[in-house]
Amino acid sequence: MAKLINLFTFSGRVGDLVGCQGPRGYYVRSRQRKSSKPPTAKQLEARARMARVMDFLTPLREIIYVGFDSKSNRGYKTGALSKAISHAMRKAVLGKYPDWYIDPSEIRLSQGDLLPLRIREIVPMGSGVVCVKWNTTQVRRRAFDDDRVFVIAYRYPDKVLVVAENQRSAGEVSVDTSSDRPGSEWLLYACAAERDLSRFSNSQFLGKVRIDG
Fold first, then answer.
1. CA–CA distance from 14 to each of 22, 33, 175, 197 (Å)?
2. Rounded to an integer, what distance in angstroms lies between the CA atom of residue 59 and that of residue 9?
3. How far apart are CA 108 and CA 92, in angstroms?
4. pLDDT grade, residue 64 (50/70/90)?
5. 143-147 long-range contacts, Cβ below 8 Å, gap at least 24?
6. pLDDT for residue 185
7. pLDDT: is 187 or 23 the higher one?
8. What pLDDT sits at residue 212?
9. Residue closest to 189 by CA, chosen among 116, 128, 125, 100
10. Domains of the chain
11. Alpha-carbon span 79 to 90, nearest angstrom
């Protein structure tokens, strides 16, 4: 159903037209139609590649919506997700069709010029907890004591996600996965953000860790 915005603009589908509100204003495009032609080999490869990326990123999308946000794209989730997908399509998909697989070290969950963390160590604490520690001596021009640090533990392909947060000045944050099954292997990511989430660092892949119960 289309929604009338004013006398001359609308959002949604009307006949063969689709009205959209984008970061740079309102626009109208033609509605895409399904082709009656069978897909080519290259199209099948591209679709399989995209499906692999989306399978990995979809559980992380709420983080990506914020982490890839920017002043030019403020509030438009599609634009933020598109940037993460584009990066993953170029960098993170390995193998050969149809056996594509994701290199988690090339996945990016946030993007920006805030100073990233200088990780000191990752310490399994037992009982499903892992502690991530970083150096708190930073260049102040690109980092602040009250920056928010997020550490994301992601169990793929089961798509289980745990997020922990602390301030940059704390120097560490503990991720508690005790509600999940013991002995699981997790992918760890980290990123820093200004306190109002207006600016982020590029996310960092911290590696795989087995968290025992």
1. 18, 14, 48, 37
2. 34
3. 9
4. very high
5. 143/114, 143/115, 143/168, 143/192, 144/168, 144/194, 144/195, 145/169, 146/195, 147/114, 147/192, 147/193, 147/194, 147/195
6. 92
7. 187
8. 76
9. 116
10. 9-36 (no CATH), 41-106 (no CATH), 119-211 (2.60.40.10)
11. 17
pLDDT at 70: 59
**Tokens 């990016």 belong to which residue?**
108
Alpha-carbon torsion 2, 22, 82, 35, what sign?
Answer: positive
- Token representation of residue 140: 């102040």
Burial class (CB in 10 A: 0-12, 13-18, 19+), 41: exposed
pLDDT of residue 16: 58
